[in-house]
Amino acid sequence: MIYRKDRAGRPISQLGFGCMRFARKGNAIDYEAARDLLAYAIENGVNYLDTAYVYPGSEECVGRALEETGLRDRINLATKLPQYRMKNLQQVEKTFQEELARLRTDRIDFYLMHMFTTFAEWENLEKMGIRDWIAGKKAEGSVRNIGFSFHGKTDVFLQILNAYDWDFCQIQYNYLDEHSQAGRTGLEAAAARGIPVIIMEPLRGGRLVNLPEKALCVLAEDPRGLSPAQLALRWLWDQPGVTCVLSGMNSLEMVKENIRTASEAEVGCFDETDRAVMEKVRTIFREKEKVGCTGCRYCMPCPKGVDIPGLFYYYNLMYLEKKWPARMDYASIIGLHKEPAFATQCVGCGKCESVCPQHLPIREKLKEADKAVRPWPLKAGLSIARKFVVK
Ligand code: SF4
Ligand code: SF4
């Protein structure tokens, strides 16, 4: 196992165990299977486990497994506060105590404000007095590192990153999402400030493992015989700003393969051959795309507040993955902002098209994308939801 460092210089395994997708038996987590996989991973060098209050049954499962196996002190335990549900500090404290009890521990090594998508969410926590609460927890030793996980737009990520003295952050990042959400810009900004970055969705929820047939043929031509997961993980571990990559492993085979890759892949490992293969695979994904937007954001900000790359990203996602999950992600990440970012706000000034390096007919594509991503039932639902849940 190769180790990177947390902010205090302590070793963090570059492969972390994501505990959101444990194998299930009926409606519940298959506890014995999860415990055995966790134990195997820890015995073989993984020292970072990531769970959350809202992952059903996960904190209880991890807590019980660590107690039964006696491995608690060999790992860094990360879990998350569902900040978007919090109304006051009493609720924050109650949730935190519940998490300690579920995890059968007296400290959380890495505690995250879960899923920021807007800056207003951080401002709300500040108004509640979260800064003092965090300072208190750190002083008593029940929280060692404080961070946040993020699923919004790049500029919001940078705003949150710069608003507090974070010990770490967690972003969605993989070779398809290089320029969406926090993206490479966010990763490099965090690294420049010395803030460790934990990576979630390195395989895009399995999408980068279950490649289209044509992409598998590209990989098969490579004499080194890299698997799709190896390609995606090596791309990440090549980057010095990446601290730990979380993988939601639910079979022994997967754990073994990822540990093997994590024992070899380091900064500088992704050579010209890897890059050529990855570019070909990425091109195959892009062939299915509806708009050739690279997410570079040269067109932003739009004077009318349209989130141009955001809409194109979800429009493409509908055809690369599944239509309704992509629409629902769009609705929650883009559609519920205080300042709406819908394509219908476009007044057709053309400023964006004059700077787009891809020469995209942005105005025309915005109309097409809006119709597909926000069909009328979603449009109606969103306008009702906005009245109650504007973030
Ligand atoms: S054409 Fe529309 S989307 Fe483009 S900059 Fe002008 S208002 Fe914004
Ligand atoms: S400038 Fe063009 S390619 Fe870049 S984000 Fe805007 S629409 Fe996409």
Largest sheet: 8 strands, parallel, barrel
Please state the CA-atom Rg, rounded to the nearest Å.
21 Å
- Arrangement of strands in the largest sheet: 3-6-7-8-9-10-11-12
What is the top-level CATH class of the largest domain? Answer: Alpha Beta
Low-confidence stretches: none
Outline? globular
Number of helices: 16
The proportion of strand residues reads 5-15%
Task: Give the oligomer, counting copies of the same chain as homo and different chains as hetero.
Answer: single chain
User: Helical content, roughly?
Assistant: 40-55%
What is the total number of structural domains? Answer: 2
How many runs of DSSP E, i.e. beta strands?
Answer: 12
| Average pLDDT figure | 91
Measured distance between first and last alpha carbons: 41 Å
CATH fold-level label of the largest domain: TIM Barrel
The H-level CATH homologous superfamily of the largest domain, spelled out, is NADP-dependent oxidoreductase domain
Q: In terms of structural class, how would the helical and strand content be classed?
A: alpha/beta
Account of the protein in words:
With 391 residues, the protein is an alpha/beta fold. The protein has two domains: 3-278, TIM Barrel (Alpha-Beta Barrel); 308-389, no CATH class. The chain is built from 16 helices and twelve strands. The strands form three sheets. An eight-stranded parallel barrel has the order 3-6-7-8-9-10-11-12, surrounded by six helices. Strands 1-2 form a two-stranded antiparallel ribbon. A two-stranded antiparallel ribbon has the order 4-5. A hairpin with a 2-residue loop joins strand 4 and strand 5 (28-29). It is globular. The model has no long low-confidence stretch (mean pLDDT 91). Bound molecules: iron/sulfur cluster (2 copies).
